[in-house]
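ok so I'm stuck.
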Amino acid sequence: MPQTPRAHVCVLASLNFPDISAEDVALIRRFTRLALTTLIELGASYELWDTTEALDNPSAAAEFDGLLLLGGGDIDGSCYGVSTPNPKAYGVDARADRDAFAAIAAAEAAERPIFGICRGSQLLNVARGGTIIPDIVDYKLHHGAPGEPEFVDEPIEIVAGTRLASILDAERITGRSGHHQAVDRVGEGLVVAARALDGIVEGIEDPSRFYLGVQWHPEDEYGPEADRLRLFSAFVSAAEQARQGRVAAVASAAVSE
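replied:
not stuck anymore, here's the structure
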């Protein structure tokens, strides 16, 4: 950890979930490790919260300078109004979902920047009342076929004029994808920031604040390093600004007393 961090980040991850395979355990740990390493390289410190077990106080996410939500299992359909079980769903843990929503609500209320990846992006959408596509039927752009590598290089179109476009400084990127679900109806106050070539939503954001989600995995070392650094740098910079604002507010309050 840096001795004098630019920001202190709460990282929410699901390192284990129901019926997880050994391959997915290794995959999630590899992705999480690179995400945490990137934060450190950018001068941020972090605390990792694993939602495999119930969080003691998810609302304490508000005490950090930013909230990063990583990938994991599918969100319970009941969270977005679907009562029929999805036969393709995996890793569903409604308690972990509730903990994540509580952390998101607390961080947003405290005006902290929030960045979600894959499951994290979907959580951000559902937290705002949006819905999820239960299973992408024509999946070829989004994940490998049975018996093939799960992750594929996916062309992703970035929507002009969005925060995401300004961060990535590109009209199209190649993302590492391995998802069978995606954002369907976009949540309140959010806009689409990226799409796959088939129109599937690959990025969402709130134009008024740093509330950003991407469906692909920039924390996969087999993807473009430059894009990962741009995304994480933007998030850490926003968290640093939040930290500076909080310090200034405390100092101002102390002077007035």
